[in-house]
TrEMBL record:
Gene3D superfamilies: Di-copper center containing domain from catechol oxidase, Hemocyanin, C-terminal domain, Hemocyanin, N-terminal domain. It holds the Pfam family Hemocyanin_M. Belongs to the tyrosinase family. Hemocyanin subfamily. Residues 293-304 form the Tyrosinase copper-binding domain. This is Hemocyanin-like protein. GO terms for molecular function: oxidoreductase activity. It comes from the Eukaryota. PANTHER family: FAT-BODY PROTEIN 1-RELATED, LARVAL STORAGE PROTEIN/PHENOLOXIDASE. InterPro entries: Di-copper_centre_dom_sf, Hemocyanin/hexamerin, Hemocyanin/hexamerin_mid_dom, Hemocyanin_C, Hemocyanin_C_sf, Hemocyanin_N, Hemocyanin_N_sf, Ig_E-set.
Amino acid sequence: MLFDVLLQCKDWDCAVKNAAYWREHMNEGEFVYALYTAVIHSDLGHGIVLPPLYEVTPHLFTNSEVIQKAYTAKMTHTAGNFEMEFTGTKKNKEQRVAYFGEDIGMNVHHVTWHMDFPFWWEDKYGHHLDRKGELFFWVHHQLTVRFDSERLSNYLDMVDELQWDKPIEEGFAPHTIYKYGGEFPARPDHIHFEDVDGVARVRDMIIMESRIHDAIAHGYITDKDGKVINIMNDEGIDKLGDIIESSVYSPNAQYYGALHNLAHIMLGRQGDPHGKYNMPPGVMEHFETATRDPTFFRLHKYMDNIFKEHKDSLPPYTHEDLDFPGVDIESVGVEGELKTYFEHYEFDLRNAVDSAQGIEDVDLKAHVDRLNHKDFSFVADVKNNNGGEVLGTFRIYLCPDYDNNGEKFDYTSGHWHCIEMDKFWKKLGPGNNHIVRKSSESAVTVPDVPSFQSLIDAADSGSVDLHEFERSCGIPNRMLLPKGKKDGMEFSLWLAVTDGKHDLTHSNGDPEHGGTHALCGVHGETYPDKRPMGFPLDRSIPDRRVFDETTNIKFTHVKVYYEGHHD
């Protein structure tokens, strides 16, 4: 309702006064969600940079011990800077990768993507969200493969998929609290899925899943009027994403259900499935907190395997599909070292505690360890034998070479674990072209949103250029690389250069699409790349010779080194 109100406002005065009024009259979580989503989608929102969500609703991003210390500091008028530790202890092996799922920047990426592409979005709001279903697949696939590479960096097996008829092996104690409404519920180890009153039965979830498997096996989806929609093509994944999530774009929500959305609620309620203890919603029921629970990644591995089943049913790419005639990659590599480390990061906790007139604010901060990497660049030498200038689409992937047992991935199994590092367009002159692309320019990452205080200071000073912070949807740029290992973790670095004239949606536009178009598209426009997301590694590769004989695709071996903590 509030999103509707704000979107209907045609001028600034209307929007600001409505926002100010409803801020006093609505649940604060609903208010923040509606305001942030409206700023993203309203024409009045262009150029607005809102503060990072972890400083607006800190209780969703940090643990209850820190919040309680902040309250004590406020009551005793003592400034404080508190260490935020990751959930759990070393007795739990999942603790080794908690830095990824509990990273406040990664949490912001996840919640912002769902604000950019809400499941309830209708085109009456002003425009169509292009390839929303495919983006749902791709952004969650990338979260899952990134999590898998973090697990391999920490000597853990890749994550197993969740199954409705088998126990949920990992419990989770979130150690987080609602600002109003108690603690987030915990879930013990080794529990079997139970029906959740008023949401769904386990049997319903299995039926939904089997209907989706049937659609993949048949190669078509049936819409609500009984018409058949062919999915054995590049667009099929988009339709599949719409029915799996499911969004308003689903052609037949009554039949295919809402597998993903209901699965999140089912998991969130397993601590109190029948409402016996009147527990509040679990971490899986909020976009801000969902990735904190390791089972989030098990759930998305389960979704991912359904998408993989579809991709594997499509015919593999041929030499003609992959070839960019006249373009040869002579070499590909990196400039600088691929080195990661942990650093301290501080954020503001003032909004975690209540304020009242006459009570002075005190400086309250939390500090947390977070993953970062040294700057580096991708480099490539590309020869253009076409005699004239051509436009190339550069697609860069990083793929782990070995599983946790030291078994080498082959083309058949390894292509599905590749991390998208960048995608960009470059004009190639005749002859040799030396390409340098900085890690900070990647089309999948965003910089840190400026802190609440620095935004206030910038606004007060009157000199504000915050253009690069307009979008918060994207992997944090410091997490472009997986952690790696102290003695080096082996990856294959892939580069595919494809025909930009064929790939680009906007033939007359500027090919230098900035921002995070690879994972988040371009606001209000069609997705800039016509090819399937993940191309050319998205379909099965039964014969590696197709790739070996294609001169516009090349890979090299690199190592990612972990350096420990930097103070």
